Amino acid sequence: MKVSAQGFTGLHMLLVTSAFFAVVIAVNVTMAVYASSSWSGLVVENTYVASQEFNRNAAAMKAMSASGIEGDLSIKGREIRYDIHDKGGSPAIVDDLVLNFKRPVGDHEDFHLTLGKTGEGRFEAEHVVAEGDWIVEIISRKDGVVVMHEAKRFDTAEFGQ
Q: Which of left, alpha, beta for 123 (phi over 0: left; psi -120 to 50: alpha)?
């Protein structure tokens, strides 16, 4: 009985090539899904400078967070309200408050708002916030000194917009 050894045929090559590209495509699709469903990053003018400042900015934010001063942002229609308070829940003594609204990707819809003080620890303004994801940078000052500087990411759907 004679056994015929065919060896590596064109069909084998087709299967190996197909398997290789199937793996490549599966990895690319997986990475695309993860990229589109995770944090999209920020737009900065100079990525090198931003990377050099990251640790310093993170330490400053950690120190401000330890102070216990917190704020609550609310958006209802055109009304934007920010209430700022200390650890005990009492209104924080702040002179002015600025909100910088930024889209996570792109800067064509970014805007800045200076909120008017309506009471101790309460600031309000009117502005339309377009639907979708936003990052708002909040800077509050007392006598020109930054009391609190924080950034929050939110979706307008969280406010029932």
A: beta
47-159, CATH topology level: Immunoglobulin-like (2.60.40)
Task: Give the separation between CA 127 and CA 77, rounded to whole angstroms.
Answer: 8
Q: What is the pTM of this model?
A: 0.63
Q: What is the CA radius of gyration of the chain?
A: 26
| Mean pLDDT in consecutive groups of 10 residues from the start of the chain, 161 residues | 75 96 97 80 79 84 79 91 89 91 86 92 93 91 87 84 58
The reported pLDDT for the residue numbered 23 is: 98
Asked if residue 80 lies in contact with residue 152, where contact means CB atoms within 8 angstroms, the answer is no
Q: What is the DSSP string of 91-111?
A: BP--SEEEEEEE-SS-STT-E
Helices (H), 38-161: 47-66
